[in-house]
Design goal:
Layout (H helix, E strand, L loop, with lengths): L2 H21 L5 E4 L4 E2 L1 H8 L4 E6 L4 H18 L3 E9 L3 H8 L5 H7 L6 H14 L4 E5 L2 H10 L9 H4 L14 H9 L11 H19 L5 E7 L9 H8 L5 E9 L15 E6 L7
Parallel strand pairs: 3-6, 3-7, 4-5, 4-6, 7-8
Antiparallel strand pairs: 1-2, 1-8
């Protein structure tokens, strides 16, 4: 083979590789809070030294759920038994049966029948639970029982004063601090039509009791040297508010890392609306298939 033909073939091969790379369609991109391009490894490198990591997901996004499992596995490699998992999707009054299932004391059918599992549990959250079970990790059922959040939504935080001691085992200590000026709660009022005839001023209070309870039980299961990886809708931890705000009230010195999720038509540049929401923003295409 003469040199000219050799170089021509080499250039052609190189161009084919370049075209192949360009033809790939990424499923997600990672950005820092400022919108600078980042990557999954950077999340791991920072998360491994955190006390708490909040993964703010979109509940129906399969890439979010896959990355949650990846993050749990990779942090486990680094932290071992010092890793604790927790999730919004499990309510505090189901902690006992969740613990029993993780310990192999009850059958999966009994656990599935009695725990209030989300409709997309099998595809999205079961892998996390099974990972915890296999590796004997604690898993925090952090959320307030939905019946109590519904009470607040209907009649305000004061309605919780009518509950008994047994109920208070599953709620953050009352009265909770409530700051209606936090953006996460003000924006809920706007979305619910504040100022119109159908506005519900109790809606953000119901959100707040969820946030306070998730912070309380997450903190209860954490101790120095551990990393608690918590899964929740991004709205509960975006802008370092929600759960993070309540957690900081419990211990201002905590090292907290937050992850948010975004969907865009073009994931090559992070839109301004998502900047500043978290330490890392995971951006997926808006036409990504859904899990529900």
């Amino acid at each position: 083979m003469n040199k000219k033909l050799f170089y021509s073939l080499a250039i052609l091969s190189f161009m084919l590789v370049v075209l192949s790379v360009k033809a790939q369609k990424p499923a997600y991109t990672v950005y820092t809070s400022s919108g600078k391009a980042s990557n999954y490894d950077s999340i791991i490198n920072i998360a491994k030294n955190a006390d708490f990591v909040f993964f703010g997901e979109m509940h129906d996004n399969p890439i979010c759920h896959w990355l949650e499992l990846c993050l749990a596995k990779d942090l486990y490699k680094l932290k071992g038994q010092s890793l604790v998992l927790g999730a919004e999707m499990f309510e505090a009054d189901n902690q006992l049966i969740l613990n029993e299932y993780l310990a192999g004391k009850v059958k999966e059918k009994n656990y599935a029948d009695e725990a209030k599992l989300w409709p997309n549990y099998t595809t999205d959250y079961k892998p996390l639970v099974e990972f915890a079970k296999t590796n004997k990790l604690s898993f925090v059922a952090s959320n307030i029982p939905r019946r109590y959040a519904s009470m607040v939504n209907a009649r305000g935080l004061e309605t919780l004063d009518s509950l008994g001691a047994e109920a208070y085992k599953y709620i953050a200590p009352l009265p909770i601090a409530y700051n209606p000026d936090l953006n996460c709660y003000k924006s809920m009022l706007k979305m619910s039509g504040m100022g119109g005839s159908h506005a519900n001023s109790n809606l953000p209070k119901a959100q707040a009791i969820k946030d306070a309870t998730m912070a309380y039980f997450s903190y209860k299961y954490w101790s120095a040297g551990k990393t608690l990886l918590h899964f929740n809708g991004s709205y509960h931890s975006d802008n370092y508010e929600g759960i993070v705000w309540y957690l900081k009230k419990l211990n201002p010195q905590l090292k907290i890392v937050t992850i948010s999720s975004a969907e865009q038509d073009d994931i090559n540049v992070l839109e301004d609306d998502y900047k500043g929401k978290a330490d890392f923003i995971i951006c997926t295409p808006s036409d990504m298939t859904k899990t529900q």
